[in-house]
Design a protein that fits this description.
With 125 residues, the protein is mainly beta. Helices cover 3% and strands 46% of the residues. The strands form 2 sheets. Strands 2, 4, 5, 6, 9, 10 and 11 form a 7-stranded mixed β-sheet that branches. Strands 1-3-8-7 form a 4-stranded antiparallel β-sheet, with no helix packed on it. The longest helix has 4 residues, at 100-103.
């Protein structure tokens, strides 16, 4: 399985960004992670492939939206009201399961078997 992210870049604080993850995955959830400087990789959002239900980590609820277009094999991550704390490398991943809220609520990295290369998000004025 190959995953490829795009859409990162330089954004001013308060701005918005749409990240894309192209992944030819038929029956497994896709999740987004971010790694900010000095911190461990953090899971932020997942989408179940079968019914497009979504799951978010508490810290991003309300500002991050995950969605998908099955025809394009693409999962999106929309980020609103960006802050400098959102800056980092955003990666998408897939793993063993499809029911995101059931299996990925703790974003255990050992559950994920394929990763994209990541896309850099910089937040600065």
């Amino acid at each position: 399985v190959q995953l490829s992210e795009s859409g990162g870049g330089l954004v001013q604080p308060g701005g918005a960004l749409r990240l894309s993850c192209v992944a030819a995955v038929d029956d497994k959830a896709i999740c987004w992670f971010r790694q900010t400087p000095g911190k461990e990789r953090e899971g932020v959002a997942c989408m179940t492939k079968s019914d497009r239900t979504t799951y978010y980590t508490d810290s991003v609820t309300g500002r991050f939206t995950i969605s998908g277009d099955n025809a394009k094999n693409t999962v999106y991550l929309d980020i609103d009201n960006l802050t400098p704390e959102d800056a980092g490398v955003y990666s998408c991943a897939t793993g063993k399961y499809d029911l995101a809220a059931l299996y990925y609520s703790d974003f255990d990295l050992t559950d994920f078997t394929a990763w994209g290369q990541g896309t850099q998000v910089t937040v600065s004025s």
